[in-house]
Automatic annotation (TrEMBL):
It is an enzyme of class 1 (oxidoreductase). It catalyses: L-proline + NAD(+) = (S)-1-pyrroline-5-carboxylate + NADH + 2 H(+); L-proline + NADP(+) = (S)-1-pyrroline-5-carboxylate + NADPH + 2 H(+). This is Pyrroline-5-carboxylate reductase. NADP(+) binds at residues 7-12, 68-71. The keyword Amino-acid biosynthesis applies. SUPFAM superfamilies: 6-phosphogluconate dehydrogenase C-terminal domain-like, NAD(P)-binding Rossmann-fold domains. Residues 3-97 form the Pyrroline-5-carboxylate reductase catalytic N-terminal domain. Pfam families: F420_oxidored (PF03807), P5CR_dimer (PF14748). One of its GO terms (molecular function) is pyrroline-5-carboxylate reductase activity. Residues 160-264 form the Pyrroline-5-carboxylate reductase dimerisation domain. InterPro entries: 6-PGluconate_DH-like_C_sf (IPR008927), NAD(P)-bd_dom_sf (IPR036291), P5C_Rdtase_cat_N (IPR028939), P5CR-like_CS (IPR053790), P5CR_dimer (IPR029036), Pyrroline-COOH_reductase (IPR000304).
Amino acid sequence: MTKLAVIGAGVMGETVFSGLLRAGWEATDIVVTARRPERREQLAERHGVRTAAANAQAVAGAETVLIAVKPQDLGTVLDEIAPVLSPETLVVSLAAGVATEVIEARLPAGAAVVRVMPNTAAQVDEGMATLSAGAHTSDDQVEQVAKLLSATGEVAIVAEKYQDAVTAISGSGPAYLFLLVESMIEGGVHLGLPRQTATQLAVQTVYGSAKLLKETGDHPSVLRERVTSPGGTTAAAIRVLEDHKLRAAFLAATEAARDRSRDLADGARSTSRSAGDR
């Protein structure tokens, strides 16, 4: 049997199986699907994995199926693989906003499904992935997925009702940080720094601060206060950020991301019901 079939060889699909290879998996235990022949050739040459053009071909006999496609493409993929899916196969979905019940409805009865929300930091093995089990998934199967994804970063197991909030914090979170760094760089350039210097200062400051936060375990407010001397430069900057309601903006942003995740989930449910009616 194939240990892992990866449906969708985009950024996240490749990130996961390349992390497994770095963790010691054998390339021959992985089969990856891609529509374009040149992409399949590229993946085979780069990683040594087996490739397939047809999703059903890849899934037949697989122990675990990792689906890394866009939410709007998920229904088509599920319909393709359902007829050949083994009862023992574990299905792992990385499709944002699509509930396990929606996935289960398009697979054979009793299929084990795990929903995952990863983020792009997995590309450097520092990702944050959250897992939620479907109705027919055992604790052992959840742990199996957690072990698999730990090759690309940290893993947390949460109740599925939290996944929309998770999407807003860690799923979309890297974009918030990239926007912050972009703004810091532009601020440095505005103050007269060469762009290369401003970039180095901003990137290393964010990287080092995140590492300090993680390794000390101190609350962010404690670390912030240590940097903020009364009447100093940092205090002046933070006053401006607070005047512009930075906290309120982040709260509104995370609520918007959560609500959009819910909208995607509702759309997926409607699509699934329509397919069932046909």
